[in-house]
Each structure stands twice: as structure tokens, then as C-alpha cells.
Amino acid sequence: DGAPRENSPFINNTDMERENVYEGKNMALFEEEMDSNPMVSSLLNKLANYTNLTQGVVEHEEDEDNSKRKEIKSPRMGTFIGVYLPCLQNILGVILFLRLTWIVGAAGILESFIIVFMCCTCTMLTAISMSAIATNGVVPAGGSYYMISRALGPEFGGAVGLCFYLGTTFAGAMYILGTIEIFLTYISPSAAVFHSKDMEGESRAMLNNMRVYGTCTLALMAMVVFVGVKYVNKLALVFLACVILSILAIYAGVIKSAFDPPDIPVCLLGNRMLSNHDFDVCAKVRIVNNQTVTTRLWGLFCNSSTLNASCDDYFYENNVTEIQGIPGISSGIILKNLWSAYTDKGAYVEKKDMPSLPVPEEIKTSSLPYVLTDIMTYFTMLVGIYFPSVTGIMAGSNRSGDLRDAQKSIPTGTILAIATTSFIYLSCIVLFGACIEGVILRDKFGEALKGNLVIGMLAWPSPWVIVIGSFFSTCGAGLQSLTGAPRLLQAIARDEIVPFLQVFGHGKANGEPTWALLLTALICEIGILIASLDSVAPILSMFFLMCYMFVNLACAVQTLLRTPNWRPRFKFYHWTLSFLGMSLCLALMFICSWYYALFAMLIAGCIYKYIEYRGAEKEWGDGIRGLSLNAARYALLRVEHGPPHTKNWRPQVLVMLNLDSEQCVKHPRLLSFTTQLKAGKGLTIVGSVLEGAYLDKHKEAQRAEENIRSLMGTEKTKGFCQLVVSSSLRDGMSHLIQSAGLGGMKHNTVLMAWPESWKQSDNPFSWKNFVDTVRDTTTAQQALLVAKNIDKFPPNQERFRGGHIDVWWIVHDGGMLMLLPFLLRQHKVWRKCRMRIFTVAQMDDNSIQMKKDLQMFLYHLRISAEVEVVEMVENDISAFTYEKTLLMEQRSQMLKQMQLSKNEREREAQLIHDRNTAAVAKSKAAAAPEKVQMTWTKEKLASEKHKNKDPNVAGFRDIFALKPEWGNLNQSNVRRMHTAVKLNGVVLNKSQHAQLVLLNMPGPPKNRQGDENYMEFLEVLTEGLNRVLLVRGGGREVITIYS
């Protein structure tokens, strides 16, 4: 139809003019939204062209924005090559060849079966959970770390990612140690650098040999990985072939043993197995040319080769017998190997059913050729040593970027690999127990077999198949670990969730992680310096178990939350399986080693808290955030709508902030004070009102909210920001007071600043707004705190060295006055201030009894404070009070009567103010000599009126010729002003130098005509004080003496 088509699969294409893209008439109705909502055809094209990015990319979404994208060959790896074989290679390894026979010998067939079954169940359940996560959307390269971090959030992701990294690194150390053990024990024992004659020294020498050769091997492997990973990947197939050939050789040997068991003699003295290194014949004496000749074995136990030599007591008492080490699968030996034979370190390896005469007070000497156990064995310790042999289940998911269909291949390949390896392990346990003599199984290093590998002696056609196969497979596994671990660290570093790791995100020009490789090699060296395979295995068991535990947790959390985005293609999962897997992982951690488990958890916890404290904010739509929302919803529904019990009451504050024309906060100290009062506890809502229409003020509202949030961060105020755009400030503040908060989490206290410029009529926050807000809080039964001189309040960094917080407790309105100083003193700013409580006694009150009662009340409240009762003597209302009242009423009256323009009204008010200032000065001078100080009564009022008619004070009256007479004043106002003046004088006298003064705030008049008078009363009440907090209770008790 000639209309131009969209020619780009990308939503935002900067290379073409926007108007040319959408000229077609078919979609004209939606053309204004095309920038944010793309055409469906464009979106589908974009998804079809999706390419997996390499591991460690910060976010695949961000990289899609790059206009120049490298052409990446479409991956072609299927389930078998891409997942099944890598998992098989990673799972089968060093433990199978070097330790499985020994585990069967020590634990017996039944307990070994339990160990293997438990570990394999754990990995199978983890694989099910992992399959669900891996098939829930496209998993870019990055595998397990990517899955956990995106499912559980950056804190868990970082902690588990680093645990997985440490596990992989220590696995590298374990494989290298396994390689060296095979080399020095079974291939070339003569290559040892360190030697020793006695048994104790020999084990130490062996460890030192492991350290030397291990370090050299690590350096060599690190060089290979640094030079080229492609060589490692090419060799992977060779290493895998070695593993498969070795396992086939074992099965072939077992089958052959059924009809033709190998001839492997083992020498026993009594029931003790002998190390077959230094003798040729298993006998004490032999007949040569009809003469009895001692053998080399005799020479080892006796002090000479003659028949009358002095020999070892046990040697003398017991016979030497030779048995078959591998009697074969049809021999029935399986019944004898069913049960465990745990021993202490340094114990003799003994055959239980052989006759043996014990020798009293036998002294163990390392020079005798017995086979001794090198470590103490028990069930839980064997679990820790065995578990690394089932790790490696993540190998497939780590290659998710290279798979043709990751969502299909990962579950199938991984679960099949675990099923295969589980079958191999479980069958091997039964077959080893059915073919091999128990003492040989417990001979860890094959000493009775002249230093041959036990499993190798069973294999067919030659022991060397196993020795060479296991050597190359462990070597290859070590290289794979050294290749994978640095990439994992690089991925974590490039996500920028752990600030101090960012340096490890860099590498060579081709992206190879050089610095990460260096760190990996250093950590790996720690494992090699430990030097014992049996000591390193439990360490990496911990880290892998922790990783698997969190994979299960991630799946369980997502399933239970029923997140809308949780739609895995893999359907054979259930949250109970994930929960069972998680519990099993946790149990195995503590079974292996409780102190290692606690240490691994401590490391993970520290990383978690560090990322939470210092890490970058990441929004990955993770399950923990969903869990938090669910928990918050549940908690909100549980919180009763009614007010909390007095014991649980704390100020849940709504802070009213004023903004200037630039949408910046006028009084930042209000937030400082909030932080000091709250200390991060309870609810804080920081509210503000913008005047105008929401559609017009939307941008300003966003900017104001950003400014408030920024200030909250600076002042460390933990809470929520709520900004309202309203047609008037008055309505906006009323809306906030009514609707801020949610459900049971609503504010019960309003904190605001005193309007310092309330006398200026053009001030947007006028006295009218203030008084109406006071009325709103009273109606809503909320407490009100008004901070006067807020800019003089201390910042969070300041620390008062001393001073007082003075409470003037005039009327009781729920105990807020008592509670606030206590809460303030929890903060460092006010901690060293002492609390003083003043209360006012009237004429009828017994002030001494009042003081005692107040001290007892404070004692029951568990609040320490100084107590003082101030006696206010009722006396006459002073002329100064009259003048204050007169000025106040006159100003109010004139503003009401004169319908002037705004400017004229200001000038008029100023004129009245100037005139009145002069009048106050003269009235003070006039009042002093007369000493008008009497109790106010009706009679006095009448006499005062008559007195005013006296000609002596005519001059005094002349000054106020324009004003109404004193007698015509509103007597209610006069009395209130009298109270304010008197109280102000008393407070100034006692608390002028206090760090903070807390005062009862009187309520506004019921008659709205006197609102401006109310402001004047409050101004007089607090005049001359440095920092004042006016407190008005919410009409309920907030403090109790009961526990």
C-alpha cells in the first residue's frame, strides 16, 4: 500500500526520524503512545532475536540498548553434550577413586548406603528446585549465581554467590590434593621430597610433600587457565573419557571376580593386618634345604634373625595367616561387611573374626609393620568427606548460555546425571562390600597391597586403568574449578553488589578474569597448605550445602508466594520438596561439622549484612522482596485497627514539612529532631503539601519527593514520604492527617514547626492554617508536637555535654510530657542531659505532698528525674497583661472592621504595632509605682472601673484615647493573657538556660473568632525561651506504671 514499514526490531531506534516510523494510518489511534508501548510485531521480532550474553554481564537488559551488537553464533549444544556429560564429569571424581572403599570399610555397607542415599537425595531435591528456577524464564549465562540472586535478591545472591565461589575454589584445592596423592602414593612414591623412617614422621613428611607438589601444580594449572581456557575446554572430553573408562573397568572387575577372583594375598598377624612393604613371604619361618630359616618378617619383629632371638610379645603369641584380599562377589563376604568398624586415630586395622591372643601392657611402636588408621572415624565425619563427591550438579546450569534450549536441557540433563551417578555410587558401595575383604577396605592407602590403589586391584584389565584414569580426571576437575571460580567471582563483581570486589570485575581485553584468577589461586593455596584431603573436603561441603540450601529456599519462597511471574516450564516440583531439600541441606551441614557449619553461616551472614549496609540498591523482582510484601500484608492484617495497649504505645509520627518555592525543605532540623525522637523505631511518615492541581504540579511533586527522600537519607530518618498536591494547603494538611498510613500502621502524633512569621498576612502557612491543623489533630484524637525555634534545635552530629530537659507539667493529658524526654534521651544528642519536671501548685494545693506524690509516680514509671513544685501565688492582673490583651484585641478588631486592600492592611497593622510598642513601654513605667498586684474578683473589677475614672490617672488614659477602656475588654481574654504572662515569667525564671523546654499546649478556643488571640497567647507563653516543644496529648494514656 506504499506506506513505510517499521524496519527495526528495537523500541528506541535513534538512527531514524521518529515521524517516519509511524506514518502508517492503520495505528493512528495509538501513535502518541508508540514511544512507551511498542507495536506487537516489533516486540516479537526483538524477542526472537534475543541472544544470551556472556557470564558476568551486569544486566542483559542494559546491553540490549547498545545499537552495535556483536554477532554471536547461535548455540547448538543439546542435553547430552551440554548438560548430562558436564554434570557427570563434575560429580564423579576424586572421592570415588580415593575414599569410597575406605568409607565402605569404616561405615559398613548399610551406613555407607545411608550416607550416599542422604547426599544423593539432597542433590536430587536441589536439582528439582534448580530446574524450576532455571525454566522460569530465560537464564543468561551466569548459571546458579544468576538464578539465586535474581530469585532471592542481591543480599542473598551475593552471600550465596560468594559461598558458591569459595566452595568451587576449595574444590579446586581438593582435586589438586587428590591428584598429588595419586601421584605420590600410587604412581611414583620415589618422587617424594621429604622422607621419614617412623610412622608419625612419615605422615608429616607426606603432608609436606603434598604442600610442595600441590603449590607447584596449582601454579602450573593457573598458568594454563591464564594462557588459554580453550585448551581446558578441549581437554574436558579427554578427562571425561578417563572417568567413564575407569568406572567401566570397575564394573568389569566385579563381574570377573564372580568366576575368577584376582589373587591378592594379604598378610595378618593374629587379627592385625601387616603393611606389605618390607617383607616378601607372609610367614615367621620357612624351610630351606630342610632347615628352618627366619623370614624378613621375623627380622622386623625380633632383634635378630636367629630362632632364639627376643621378639615382640604379640608376634610371639600369635600366628601369621594369609588371606585373599579380594575373594570375589560370590564369596559371601558381603555379610561380614554389613556393619561399621569405626576406630580411633592410630588404631590397628583388624579383622574381627580372626583369632587373636591379646598381650598385656603392649606398647605401640611405629617401627613395627602394622597398618594403622591415620584419623579417627565416625559417621558424621564420613558424611563430610563424602559429600563433595555429589557436588557438581550446577555444571549444566552454568553453561545455560551455550545450550540450544536451556529450559528443556537443564532439568532433563541434570536429573538424569544425578540419577546415573547415584546409581553408580550406591551400586559401588554394595559391590565393594561384596567383593573386597573388610580389612582391605579400611586400608586407606593400600599399604597391605604393596602401595597399590584398592579400587585399582579390583578393576579389570589392569590397576593402571584406574590409577591413570583417576589421575587425569582429578587433574581435569581441578582445571575446571580454576576456570569456573574466577568467572563466578567476575560475575558477582560486575553486578556491583559488593563494593570491595569491583576490582575483580576487570580482566584481559577478551574478558578473561585475570584479577579474579589471582585471588582464586591464593584462596586455593590455603586449601593446599591444609594438605589433607580429609580436612579440605568438609570445608567445601559446607559452602556447597549452603548454596544448595538457598536454591531450595528460592524455589520454596517463589512457589509459596505464588508470584505472578513464577511460571516454570518444569512442572514436577512442589514447595514441600524444596523445603525438604532445604532442611536436609541444613541437617547435613551440622552433621558434617557443627563448627564449620556455624563458621560458614557466619561468613554468609557477614556478607549479607555488608551488602545490605554498603551494597548498591538493586531491584531484581526477587522473592525476598515479595516475601517482605506478603509478610507486611500479613502483619498489617494482624495489627488490630483499634489503638494499641498503653504498654505498646509509642509516638508514630506524621512530620509536617514546609517547602519553599524550589521544593526544598524549609526546616531540615525538624527531620533531625524526628530521628532523635524515633531512633529508627516505629512508624515515621514525612508529609508535605504542594498547592495547585495534580496534573499541573506532577513534576514539581516528584522533585519535592526526591528532595525530601534525599534529606531523610542525610538525616538518617527511617520512614515513608507522602506528598499531597491539593488546591489549598489547609485541605492538603487535613487530608494528610486523616489518610496518612495504612490499616493499623497509622500515625498517632503530628509533629510540626511553629509558624514564626504568622503575623505576616501574606505568609502561605498562616495562623489560620496552624490553628485549624491543631483542631484537626484534636478531632482525630492524635497527639500534637509543635517545635518553636526549630532552627535552633541540635543536628544529629551534635552532642550535649550536659544541661537539662525541662518538663512543665501543668495539666495531665495522657503522660506524653513524661514519655518524650525519656525517648529523646535514648539518642546520643540528648543522652547526657538530665530531666527535670516542674509542676505548678495553686493556693489550695499542698506543695510538699505534691512533690512526694510526683516522686513516687516517677518511681513507679521507672523514670529518673529531678522534681520541683513551683507555687504560683494568685495576684492581681498587671497593667502589662491589660496592655497585651488590649493590643491583641485592638489589632484583631481593626483587621476585621477595615475592609482594606492587602497592602493597606499590612501598613495599618504595622502602624498599630509601632504605636502599641510605645504604649507598652509607657504602661510598664506607669504600672510600677501603683503596684496593681491583687487577686482578681468581680468587686475588684468594679473598683478598678471606678478607679479608672479617677482624675489622677487621666494622663495614663490619654495615651489610649483611641482604644476601648480596660473594663470593656473581654474578661476571658484578660484571664488567659494573665495566665500566659505569669506562666512565662515562672518558666523563664527556672528554665531559661535549659537545652529543651516541654510545655503543655493549651487547646484553641471553641469560638473561632478568637483564633488570632490564641496565637498571641502561645507567643506570650513561650517568649524568651530558646528551644520549646509544645505538647498536646491525643486524649489517651500513653504511659503506665504496670509491667
Would you kindly provide a written description of the structure presented here, covering whatever features stand out?
This protein has 1043 residues and is of the alpha/beta class. The protein folds into four domains: 75-260 and 375-592, Amino acid/polyamine transporter I (Up-down Bundle), CATH 1.20.1740; 265-373, no CATH class; 645-771 and 781-790, HUPs (Rossmann fold), CATH 3.40.50.620; 799-917 and 972-1042, Rossmann fold (3-Layer(aba) Sandwich), CATH 3.40.50. Helices cover 52% and strands 8% of the residues. It has 34 helices and 15 strands. Helix 23 (669-678) links the parallel strand 6 (653-657) and strand 7 (684-691). Helix 7 crosses helix 8 (199-227) and helix 7 runs antiparallel to helix 17 (463-494). The two termini are 84 Å apart. Mean pLDDT is 79; it is low at 1-23, 49-72, 898-902, 919-945 and 947-966.
